[in-house]
Amino acid sequence: MLAGMSVDYVVRLEQDRSSQPSTQLLGALARALRLSDDERDHLFHLAGHHPPPADGVVRLARAGLMRMLDLLGDTPALVLSDLGEVLAQNRAALLLMGDHTRFTGDRRYVMYRWFTEPAARAVCPPEEQEHQARQMVADLRAVVGRRSGDPTVAGLVDRLQAASADFRRLWAEQEVAVRRANRKTLLNPRVGRLVMDCETLIAPDQGQQLLVFTPADAETRERLELLRVLGFEEFPAGVTGRVER
């Protein structure tokens, strides 16, 4: 269930009665089994694939951060790469913002969706969108400094500049800042306005971050509790939900 595949398929895979599994399937298994980086790489080798590269193309959340997600329980939390790819979410985060691990290509970057898809900003009140955009761009510039010469980072910046005049405007202002703690307002399609404190815990190598969302007031706390009671069954058709960092 956690890996998104049937019991029958897993049994056939274990018994070597299936075709070679894809890298996407192996990544899902590694997440579900909470494998360490070394165990994950071994799994890829056993299946005849090269392990995920370090440039973020097939990044998987660290095993320690995954365990922290489990421990947080009803507190919404997610794991991000330093370029803003959502690598893992706990159940509370899925209820709050929908599944953000499903995107591929440039759309897997939260910032790319923000600047190229107007609907991606709907989670944020209009009066806060400029501030949110500035924070994302300033954080990306800090990543560029840490990963100087990395073609993955440079390529993302080039594609953003080509795709968005708004991004070009903010990028030209040369602001730089690492995101650590923040208060933001999220607009959830089922329970409405939520004021959340967002704490960012950064891994030692700064390659991944754990974002933890806690309610900033009593009303938000009550609405989060309602969201937990509603569960997944009552998501309106077509609603995916989004969160932007």
Describe the structure.
It is a single chain. By secondary structure, the chain is α+β, with helices and mostly antiparallel strands. The chain folds into 2 domains: 7-46, no CATH class; 63-230, Beta-Lactamase, CATH 3.30.450. Helix content is 43%, strand content 15%. The protein is built from 10 helices and 5 strands, in the order H-H-H-H-E-E-H-H-H-H-H-E-E-E-H. The protein has helices spanning 7-14, 23-32, 37-46, 63-72, 91-97, 110-116, 126-146, 151-163, 165-171, 218-230; strands spanning 77-81, 86-89, 181-188, 192-202, 208-215. The protein has a 5-stranded antiparallel beta sheet with strand order 2-1-5-4-3, sandwiched between helices. Helix 2 (23-32) packs antiparallel against helix 3 and helix 8 packs across helix 9. The radius of gyration is 19 Å and the shape is globular. The model is unreliable at 234-245 (pLDDT under 50). This is Helix-turn-helix transcriptional regulator. It holds the Pfam family MLTR_LBD. Residues 2-40 form the HTH cro/C1-type domain. It comes from Nonomuraea marmarensis. InterPro entries: Cro/C1-type_HTH, Lambda_DNA-bd_dom_sf, MLTR_LBD.
